[in-house]
Amino acid sequence: MKTLKAISLLLDYPSAVIQTHAEDLEALFAADEAIDMETRRGLTALVRRMAATDLLELQAEYTAQFDRGRALSLYLFEHVHGESRDRGQAMVDLIGFYEEQGLVIDSKELPDYVPLFLEFCSRLTRPAALGWLVESQYLLQKLHGRLEQRESDYQWLFKALLDIAGLETADEQMQRQLGEEERDDTAEALDRVWAEEPVTFGPTAGGCGGAKTNQGQAVPVSWSTIPRKSA
């Protein structure tokens, strides 16, 4: 699915490739009838803005938006498992799914990085790709809702994913919860994190380094509170 590949590119760290192929991206989104008209207009505006903005400025904006807190983290399992051991095993399982599709992961990226996940989905048949998007509905809705509240035009990328999968945006309850969240990307919030974060040395219990296999048994990849059914 070429649209998923395009969204993957736009959600990755900005590069000159986006600006070079801006017209191609516009045409691709305009032709995808699964995306509603309002979303297509939002995507077009985003692509045009990115094409017209200095690359260094785009990169600084991207870092400030996605790397200054966990609320907008583009690492999916961080929203589900945090730093628990479960995250490590989920990553191991996800790597297995990628390898089945011939996707070799660059060591610098974790498998739950949204652009990498979308690259994987883009290689699948449409029904299989939609299945993965539907399964990640809760996370897509939360990320879209938070970006919408912050009036970020990156919101249209997640809205497009919801459109493609035939999913609705956050319901009233989730919108209310998101509206009550305290932002974690302010200077004060970041200072609190640094003050509260313990200093540790040596191996930790969480993350990939702490992951252990379950005696060879497959452990389902869990995107939300509902475990994934057999792959």
UniProtKB/TrEMBL annotation:
<keyword id="KW-0534">Nitrate assimilation</keyword>
<feature type="region of interest" description="Disordered">
    <location>
        <begin position="204"/>
        <end position="231"/>
    </location>
</feature>
<feature type="compositionally biased region" description="Polar residues">
    <location>
        <begin position="212"/>
        <end position="231"/>
    </location>
</feature>
<dbReference type="GO" id="GO:0016530">
    <property type="term" value="F:metallochaperone activity"/>
</dbReference>
<dbReference type="GO" id="GO:0051082">
    <property type="term" value="F:unfolded protein binding"/>
</dbReference>
<dbReference type="GO" id="GO:0042128">
    <property type="term" value="P:nitrate assimilation"/>
</dbReference>
<protein>
    <submittedName>
        <fullName>Respiratory nitrate reductase chaperone NarJ</fullName>
    </submittedName>
</protein>
<dbReference type="GO" id="GO:0051131">
    <property type="term" value="P:chaperone-mediated protein complex assembly"/>
</dbReference>
<dbReference type="InterPro" id="IPR020945">
    <property type="entry name" value="DMSO/NO3_reduct_chaperone"/>
</dbReference>
<dbReference type="InterPro" id="IPR036411">
    <property type="entry name" value="TorD-like_sf"/>
</dbReference>
<dbReference type="Pfam" id="PF02613">
    <property type="entry name" value="Nitrate_red_del"/>
</dbReference>
<dbReference type="InterPro" id="IPR003765">
    <property type="entry name" value="NO3_reductase_chaperone_NarJ"/>
</dbReference>
